Amino acid sequence: MRNLLSNNEKEGFGVSAVGATTEVVLLTDTTLTAKQEHPFKHTAFRAITRGVSRRIDACQLTHRSREEVNYEKACSQLEQYCQLLGRWGVDLMPVAASDSHPDCCFVQDTAVVLDEVCVIASMGAETRLGEVAEVEKMIAPLRKIRHIFSPATLDGGDVVQFGKRLFVGLSTRTNARGIAALAEIVECFGYTVIPVVVNGGLHLTTGCGIVNDETVLLNPRWLDAFAFSGLRRLYVPEAEPWAANTIRVDDNVCLEEGAPQTVDLVQPYAGSIETLDISEFRKAEGSLSCLSLIFKETVHNHNMNEHGGRR
After folding, report:
1. pLDDT tens, 9-52?
2. Which domain holds residue 248?
3. Contacts of 265 (CB under 8 A, 6+ apart)
4. Residue 307 belongs to some domain of the structure
5. pLDDT (tens digit per residue) in 127-151
6. Choosing a second label site near 265 at 20 to 30 A (CA), which of 3, 29, 128, 212?
């Protein structure tokens, strides 16, 4: 893992690495307005993570050939991932691994957590349905719970949130009924659901990552990039097809190790960039965001004065 840069004053519209593309669009959507912080509260982040199953070699695969996964190395990579979240100030909520569920570490797929509600997924791979119970137990004290039921299918890894817009992948794991069911649940909270055709990676997030509130990183060869109108779109180079997925907390962004051109592409739009080696999870068709379920908690701070300083 490397900390590649830290610069909160980057300006301009950045660089395009060789083979990569920056597409700048007019950002007029109301979801991209400046954030207004309440003087007596700040936003904290939590993340549910789950241990690696000793049977991860038996994971579900769709687009990759099966390779042996080194269990010990995978555990070490997950530990480094959790350490990074900790350094970013994220409160971790770990769940023990399950040897009955080889894919259990890919906890993002189990739910969609919004400020107002948590939607428990109806996972597209039937063998993974048992993974949601432990996650629901963790979330239930913190959010209203709603469920999506079969024959509708939806994996959390097919949902990318930008403000009040939810981009949802129509993929091998999420069907049209699942997208419609999610829309029905969240529309009363003011969300708009935007379907995105996925024709390459396993999930929408396989070819899509958040850089900041206005910028999305995409592999346009694996999904319909035009669905992300109103956002600045950065396109990963063909030589780094797996690099589009990210994890992001505030202005901190993490990319997968081994994608230097994509790092250069993202650099102007992130406060700090780190990289992580997730090579063992990649064998299991996993990405960075798959390994956590990150959500916000608003914390009231009674020790702050009206100007945001401590009393």
Report:
1. 333 333 334 456 665 444 434 334 333 344 444 579 999 999 99
2. 2-26+40-299
3. 14, 15, 16, 17, 20, 22, 217, 234, 236, 237
4. no
5. 777 889 999 999 999 999 999 999 9
6. 29
% of the chain at pLDDT higher than 70: 78
Which residues are 195's β-sheet partners? 168
Contact indicator for 144, 151 with CB cutoff of 8 Å: no
Count up the domains in the chain and report the number.
1
Residue 35 is assigned to a structural domain of this protein: no
Q: Checking DSSP bridges between strand 208-212 and strand 41-50, what pairing results, if any?
A: unpaired
Q: Please, where are the H alpha helices in the chain?
A: 71-87, 132-139, 176-186, 260-266, 279-283
**Is residue 176 situated within a structural domain?**
yes
Query: Does a structural domain hold residue 153?
Result: yes
Nearest by Cα to 39 from 311, 306, 310: 306
The CATH number covering residue 58 comes to 3.75.10.10
CB crowding 104-124: b at 16 or more within 10 Å, else e: bbbbbbbbbbbeebbbbbbbb
> Amino acid letter at 47?
A
Omega before 241 within 30 of 0, i.e. cis: no
Q: Can you tell me whether residue 199 is helix, strand or coil?
A: coil
Gap between the Cα atoms of 16 and 186, Å rounded: 36
Structure tokens at 135: 């996650």
pLDDT in tens, 92-117: 999 999 888 888 999 999 999 999 99
Tokens of 220: 């346009």
Closest CA relative to residue 254, chosen from 9, 3, 8, 79: 3
